[in-house]
Amino acid sequence: MSFHAIMFDICPQYCQVLAEYLPSESAGLSRIPMQHYFAALEQGAKLNQDSLWGFELGKQINSAQYGLLGYLVESSATLQQALDALLAFDKTVADIGICQFVADQEVASITWQPYENNQHAILRNMTAWVAMVRHMTGQELSPRRVEFNLVLTHSQRARLSSWYGCEVIANATSNTIHFAAELLNMPILTRNELVNANLYPAIKDLQRAYESNQSWFAKLQPSLHRCDLQDMSLSGLAQLLGTSTRTLQRQLKYHGVSFSQLLEQERKRRFTQFCQVLHKQALSELLGYAEQASLNRAVKRWYGVSPSEYVRQQQKREGH
């Protein structure tokens, strides 16, 4: 099992609708390993024969699946306050990606970058944002545009667009929801000041208890995602992180992870994200390989097949 499977995880509530698909090793765990969550998503999609099964799960999201955070969000005064809570504490629910929020006077956007590019996890997470907003406001609000870094067919995009109520773009550089900034001032139907006042410190305590090894690895992710793997080195990563090479070495040793493992995991993530939209030469360069043969060997090591065969398998699974 990779260090990602150990370090990044999901709360049991968020996996309740997937309980029957989870690996048996997940039974009784206080946190569900990320790879168990992904395996359950893949198994559920296969058994339900639905290439957009993650989307269907996201539509069913409710506050209970977010644990205490869900009730804190529902007791917020406005969408802005609810969003602030979600952004601050989302990793206590599901530490499987990085969420960013930007806004100007007219348009706001939420971008979610997963640590690993699992289609159903992306669809569930992105759809859940919109489903929660509709639930909390009691209105069928729609974004202005939704972008996915996924390869989607015309019929899949049409199905998504029908529910989102806006244009859905595939093959984008990120997973982003764009919406009118004025929606941030919309009131929450379930506003409860007493609940909010008591839950906020409770969530803060939960966050402090959870911030251990996970938080250190989570801070690495943005730097790994944007680095040039062609000449990436331990000292180069340390520079991106704003620390010394020696300090980074100590941190890696403390967490039982090598620089080569970090590099391997980032290469694997980039391959799964871009293998269907880049040709092999560009893909090799993105992953930091001087030769396509190195890419072939890496994919064979990760998945037991060639890059071309992996893409064919994915397209077949996703209904292309």
Helix content: 40-55%
Shape, principal axes of CA atoms:
globular
Multimer state: single chain
Content of β-strand: 5-15%
> Roughly how many Å apart are the termini?
30 Å
- The total count of helices amounts to 15
Molecular structure report:
There is one protein chain. Helix content is 53%, strand content 9%. With 320 residues, the chain is an alpha+beta fold. The chain folds into two domains: 51-210, no CATH class; 227-317, Homeodomain-like (Arc Repressor Mutant, subunit A, Orthogonal Bundle), CATH 1.10.10. Strands 3-4-7-5-6 form a five-stranded mixed beta sheet. A two-stranded antiparallel ribbon has the order 1-2. Helix 3 runs parallel beside helix 6 (119-137), helix 4 (68-74) packs antiparallel against helix 8 and helix 10 (234-241) crosses helix 11.
Q: Main attributes?
A:
320 residues; Arc Repressor Mutant, subunit A; five-stranded mixed β-sheet; two-stranded antiparallel ribbon
What is this structure's SSE topology?
Blueprint: H1 3-7, E1 9-10, E2 32-33, H2 34-48, H3 53-59, H4 68-74, H5 79-89, E3 97-103, E4 107-114, H6 119-137, E5 145-147, H7 154-164, E6 167-169, E7 176-180, H8 193-210, H9 213-226, H10 234-241, H11 245-254, H12 259-274, H13 280-286, H14 292-303, H15 307-317
Helix pairs in contact: 3-6, 4-5, 4-8, 10-11
